Amino acid sequence: MNSVKSIFIIAAVGLCLIGTSGCKGKSEQGGDQTVEKTGTRAKVKATLFDKSLPEIKEFVNGKWELVSGQNAGQLCEFENTFIVFDGDKYIWSEDGKDEPGDLNWRKADTGVGYEAYLMDVFYATNPAYPLSINGDTLFIQDCTETGYKYTLVRR
């Protein structure tokens, strides 16, 4: 009976070792943010609506391709539309035409029960806020009645 039990324990330990040997990266988690390190790139997964403004700017700065906007009833897809975020400024590029603008960051109510740093990137009269980031994908939520959530991919 003890030999069967010993064999079972050895087999279980062996399976555990085999199951974890395929890990290629290291994961660090802190609060609502996860960072997976694989090679030289870091893949970040974090909420942004609850971050400080300097943290948000650090996450979103760079060139992004606007892929889609979606709410409960509609999906809008975009082609050849890019947004470059640079601190307090942005450049909207659509079909090769650049339109620069000011983000006008401000902390305010989102209309869904919490405050976040709002910005004027889609419409000045209907601000939006960075919701979350998952690797190279950024999600921005607008504050309109239609409630579009935009998906952008880092380029």
Provide structural commentary.
- The protein contains two helices and 13 strands; from the N terminus they run H-E-E-E-H-E-E-E-E-E-E-E-E-E-E.
- The protein is of the alpha+beta class and 155 residues long.
- The N and C termini lie far apart (61 Å).
- Strands 1, 2, 3, 4, 5, 6, 7, 8, 9, 10, 11, 12 and 13 form a 13-stranded antiparallel beta sheet that branches.
How do you describe this structure in short?
The protein is an alpha+beta fold.
Please state the CA-atom Rg, rounded to the nearest Å.
22 Å
Strand-and-helix sequence, N→C?
HEEEHEEEEEEEEEE
Q: Tell me how many strands there are.
A: 13
* Uncertain residue segments: 2-31, 37-41
Structural class: alpha+beta
Helix coverage percent: 10-25%
Shape: globular
User: Mean of the pLDDT scores?
Assistant: 80
Distance between the termini: 61 Å
Summarize the SSE layout with pairings:
Elements: H1 2-20, E1 26-30, E2 33-38, E3 41-47, H2 53-60, E4 62-70, E5 75-77, E6 81-86, E7 89-94, E8 97-102, E9 106-109, E10 115-123, E11 126-134, E12 137-142, E13 149-154
Antiparallel strand pairs: 1-2, 2-3, 3-11, 4-5, 4-6, 4-13, 6-7, 7-8, 9-10, 10-11, 11-12, 12-13
Please give a handful of descriptors for the protein shown.
single chain; 155 residues; alpha+beta; 13-stranded antiparallel beta sheet; 17% helix; globular; disordered N terminus
